[in-house]
Design brief:
The protein is mainly α. Helix content is 62%, strand content 4%. The strands form two sheets. Strands 2-3-4-1-5 form a five-stranded parallel β-sheet, with helices on both faces. The chain has a two-stranded antiparallel sheet with strand order 6-7.
């Protein structure tokens, strides 16, 4: 990097035993043409901060601008506090960014107001600002004490550190190896700072403490184990006698305890006023002298802390009005050695000063308060709202948790704990143990059977997301609904929200019995359930039987879609009646808002999956896969595993339809792996659906039948499992192609008995196609014609092409050759356009069998007859000789003979090469 290309002559002269370390840092940055990142790690006191100072000083001397930030333990739950430190010198440069990025960054660092930006938007804004500044002057970002930085800041820094290529920015950070950090270091170069060797330790002790006896130095060196901070600080605890008389030195304690005791002793020797000021500074956490002095009664810190600065406890910059501890352990020790009363007093003093900073004021009041105090609890709850509004889920959770601890009312304590758990999931903050919060919320109010409905709904969603226990979540929510004092009034918003959540849980369960409490509640609502809730229950629970009842009202809702929540819920109602196209524009707007950070993540995810499904059914498969990847990335970034299965389902469908059974089945396994242990049998049905389609594509019709019947019995059509309806055509096709004609007929009868055909024209086409597949030839042709008359191929290309393939196959076997070719050519073209290779190959084979293309040559290797081409195509899909023979009414030996003759004509010598060889033939123009 510019400014770090020369040896650290000046820096290394001030450091002992660190020449090799400085050289490594220099070579790392100078070896990168543009942009580099390095993470220093080591134990506490190993010299990381001193090394950072040396690198920063050298960079400044050579024209590089240095930006610094340091983690502060007592501000670790204040969002973007570290980013605020880092970007303070650049506040006036924010206007270099476009408005969306500028405003997002201002809100994040606390100098602006507006909708809470998501972390991606904030991270991108910070990166763009730094790159813009670096165009004029090389930048070095120096970050110390990563473990104590707030989580949002570490997220931004991790994002920036991985995107420095091509810039004039270098990133150097330090972290303790024994401390957990939210900073994601994977992919970054990490350099472990080792203890000083024996010679360097001796040199450092000699230069720092020349009056200490050699024997004592050796003992100190043995205790310090090469830790520079211990080497420098331990001797200062010794009195004059101890520094020269080995027998006077007390027995040693473990290093960390000795350092703690040492710092406390050094602080204890200071005047009372100095110790009080240091305690305020340690708890203030930012180092703002104006705040520290105001909290200390307007006493001048520079004067009061003169002895502390002389003893190297702190450094004070009069110019910048900042105070910092020489090492974080010093501040920690200051707090540790203070009495509880002293700490509360300091917190109260800080709260009294920070009247214009409600978040920090509430934090200090919370720490100063020992018993129940609803006023402070309310302030903390308000602070949580402010933090949440700025995108700080973890900060909001911390404030709510503390508010719960101060709540006089057990009901309020329970409510706040449950809300804290909900925010962690809903805003993507995540929780290490969501179930403990739920248990704590219930334990806090044993007199109440469950939480408030809002909290219960949130807790249930948190539970299914974090632990995925659908049964427990369902039981929790149903209990709260049935025990509530809402009187089942349709005007009760909390009840309505809880019932929408219950619909989600019931769908995931895949258990018909789980829906009973929902419909009991709907029946009891007065004067009647809200329209949207009723429509959702009819179209999302058992749409094959009840969905048609709600279509008229659904159309009304589709004509007047409101806010983001209504967009998502109306879209949910539109999934199974095939009306997603009617909400596409609204869903697209919602996705764009989510990408800009102005829509909740869960709403963003819901809109994405609705777009994915619409794209799949409308044949926009590449776009569906792309949006599904975006959704999965959001699920991972924000912690939504229960949403991921839906995006994996879309990807598995496309992969299976395109002949990539390996990928499709792997995605299905991921769905099953999440769903089964959690009792999410509705989600598991997605995997069966995708597996069935992949098996149909690969020619494994027996396997396809097994997968289809695993989620859907032959009769009746599985109730309260909507995907049984959407996979019905697959089941019947698999049964027919595997020789299970009676089973196919049984399931088709079940479809006729349902109201599935009344739900949408596409599903009506499916029912008619199933009837045609299970009907004698004469009647079947009319049913196929009727089915194909219902839809435009452009609206539902894959579905229509499959029916055309069925129809073409039946026509060819009836020797209605010309008409068969028309259907098969249209099907093949659609399959080719979609990239549905297995279906395209099947349609092409039928075309050749009809005599459409009587011969073809590949690389001059001779001609295939129509029958040979059909056999080769079927073999390429994975069918065995026996299966091919059953399809063509030939013996497996005859099939083997044909293949023996086909291989040399195609220039291949194995069955595995058939697909690639046949791909070279291409589909001849139908003219």
């Amino acid at each position: 990097m510019h400014g770090l290309d020369h040896p650290f002559r000046t820096a290394s002269a001030r450091l002992i035993g660190r020449d090799k370390d400085l050289e490594f840092i220099r070579s790392h940055f100078s070896g990168s043409v543009h942009g580099a990142a390095l993470l220093l790690s080591g134990e506490a006191g190993i010299g990381k901060t001193v090394l950072l100072d040396a690198v920063a000083a050298q960079a400044r001397s050579e024209g590089t601008r240095v930006l610094r930030s340091s983690g502060v333990q007592f501000e670790a739950d204040v969002s973007y506090a570290g980013l605020n430190q880092l970007l303070v010198p650049l506040f006036e440069s924010f206007d270099l960014l476009e408005p969306s990025h500028r405003d997002a960054l201002k809100v994040a660092v606390g100098i602006g107001s507006g909708p809470p930006p998501n972390r991606l938007l904030t991270s991108t804004a910070a990166l763009l600002l730094l790159r813009r500044i670096a165009q004029d002057t090389p930048l070095l970002i120096v970050v110390d004490d990563l473990p104590w930085l707030d989580r949002p800041t570490t997220s931004v820094l991790g994002f920036v550190a991985r995107r420095l290529v091509g810039s004039r920015i270098s990133f150097l950070a330090a972290s303790r190896v024994t401390s957990d950090s939210f900073f994601e270091s994977s992919g970054l170069t990490e350099y472990r700072l080792q203890p000083l060797d024996e010679a360097s330790s001796a040199q450092l002790l000699a230069e720092a403490h020349p009056d200490m006896s050699h024997t004592i130095r050796r003992r100190i060196a043995a205790e310090a184990h090469g830790n520079p901070l211990a080497l420098l600080e331990l001797p200062t605890a010794l009195d004059r006698e101890q520094r020269t008389a080995p027998t006077a030195v007390p027995s040693v304690l473990p290093l960390s305890e000795r350092l703690q005791a040492l710092f406390a002793a050094r602080v204890a020797d200071l005047p009372d006023a100095s110790r009080e000021l240091l305690l305020i500074a340690a708890l203030e956490g930012i180092g703002d002298l104006a705040v520290i002095e105001a909290a200390a009664g307007r006493r001048a810190a520079v004067d009061l802390l003169e002895s502390a600065e002389r003893d190297r406890l702190v450094t004070i910059s009069a110019a910048s009005r900042r105070l910092s501890f020489r090492h974080p352990l010093i501040g920690f020790a200051v707090v540790a050695q203070a009495s509880t009363a002293d700490r509360r007093r300091a917190h109260r003093a800080l709260a009294a000063v920070l009247t214009d900073q409600p978040e920090r004021r509430a934090h200090h009041l919370g720490e100063a308060t020992t018993g129940p105090d609803e006023t402070v609890a309310e302030l903390l709850e308000q602070a949580a709202r402010l933090r949440l509004g700025r995108g700080d889920a973890l900060g909001a959770m911390a404030a709510l948790t503390r508010a719960a601890g101060l709540s006089p009312s057990s009901a309020d304590e329970s409510r706040r704990l449950a809300e804290a758990a909900y925010i962690g999931t809903d805003a993507g903050g995540g929780m290490a143990d969501a179930s403990s919060l739920l248990v704590g919320a219930r334990r806090a109010d044993p007199a109440t059977r469950e939480e408030s409905l809002h909290a219960a709904a949130a807790s249930a969603l948190l539970l299914i997301n974090e632990e995925g226990d659908v049964n427990t979540a369902h039981r929790l929510l149903v209990g709260a609904i049935e025990a509530g004092g809402h009187g089942y009034a349709a005007s009760d918003d909390a009840l309505v929200e809880a019932l929408f959540t219950l619909i989600t849980l019931c769908w995931y369960s895949g258990d018909p019995e789980k829906w009973a409490p929902l419909f009991r509640a709907l029946d009891r609502m007065t004067p009647a359930p809200p329209d949207l809730l009723w429509v959702c229950a009819q179209t999302f629970a058992d749409p094959a039987r009840t969905g048609y009842r709600a279509l008229e009202l659904l159309d009304t809702l589709l004509d007047d879609i409101g806010d983001a929540t209504q967009v998502v819920r109306v879209s949910t109602c539109a999934v199974y009646p095939d009306r997603l196209a009617d909400v596409r524009e609204a869903s697209l707007r919602l996705v764009e808002q989510g990408r800009a950070g102005t829509a909740p993540v869960r709403r963003h995810l819901s809109a994405l999956i609705h777009l994915c499904l619409d794209d799949y059914y409308k044949g926009r498969w590449d776009e569906a896969v792309k949006l599904a990847a975006e959704g999965l990335s959001l699920c991972e970034d924000y912690g939504y595993p229960f949403f991921a299965c839906k995006f994996q389902f879309v990807q598995a469908l496309v992969a299976g339809a395109r002949g990539d059974a390996v990928t499709s089945n792997a995605l299905s396994e991921e769905i099953v792996g999440w769903a089964v242990p959690r009792g999410a049998h509705g989600a598991r049905a997605l995997a069966f659906h995708a597996r069935c389609l992949a098996a149909l594509g690969s020619g494994d019709f027996d396997g396809a039948f097994r997968h289809a019947t695993a989620m859907n019995p032959l009769t009746p059509l599985a109730p309260y499992l909507p995907h049984a309806m959407t996979g019905a055509l697959d089941l019947v096709e698999a049964a027919v192609r595997s020789g299970r004609s009676a089973d196919a007929a049984t399931h088709t009868a079940a479809l006729r008995e349902s109201a599935m055909a009344r739900l949408s024209p596409r599903l009506h086409m499916h029912v008619l196609a199933c009837e045609a597949l299970t009907t004698s030839d004469g009647d079947a042709l009319g049913l196929f014609e009727q089915a194909l008359s219902l839809l435009d191929v452009d609206d539902w290309p894959f579905d229509v092409a499959r029916v055309r393939l069925f129809y073409g196959e039946r026509l060819r076997r009836r020797r209605v050759t010309k008409k068969a070719r028309e259907q098969l050519v249209q099907a093949a073209r659609t399959f080719e356009k979609l990239g549905a290779a297995p279906w395209a190959a099947r349609a092409t084979a039928e075309l050749h069998a009809s005599g459409r293309a009587t011969s073809a040559t590949v690389q001059g290797k001779g001609a295939l007859t129509a029958q040979e081409f059909e056999i080769a195509t079927l073999a390429a899909t994975g069918l065995t000789n026996k299966q091919i023979g059953e399809r063509l009414f030939l013996s497996h030996r005859t099939i083997g003979t044909h293949l023996y003759q086909i291989y040399p004509k195609l220039g291949i010598n194995s069955r595995a090469a058939l697909r690639d060889a046949l791909a070279a033939l291409g589909l001849e123009d139908a003219g």
